[in-house]
Design goal:
The chain is mostly helical. The chain has three helices and two strands.
Length: about 80
């Protein structure tokens, strides 16, 4: 697995642009302010608009890291 960290306070547009440029399989967003309620849906909307809706935006707040890793390890077995 490779992780690309884009830094703090990225706009949904910045997140989507970086994801497309880096040809990622999934986007993980960390948001402690509660802004995830507006940020996540906007990222998904922009991905679909840019015809990149196949990029996953997964896992809600509080999801244990081991659950996230297990998901991607299992997904990688089918690749």
């Amino acid at each position: 697995m490779e992780v690309i960290y884009t830094g703090l306070r990225q706009s949904p547009e910045d997140i989507v642009e970086a994801a497309i440029q880096e040809d990622v399989d999934a986007i993980g967003l960390s948001c402690l302010s509660g802004a995830h309620m507006t940020l996540f849906p906007e990222v998904v909307k922009l991905l679909k608009k840019r015809k990149s809706g196949d990029i996953l935006v997964v896992f809600g707040p509080g999801t244990p890291l081991r659950e996230i890793v297990a998901f991607f390890e299992t997904a990688g077995e089918g690749a």
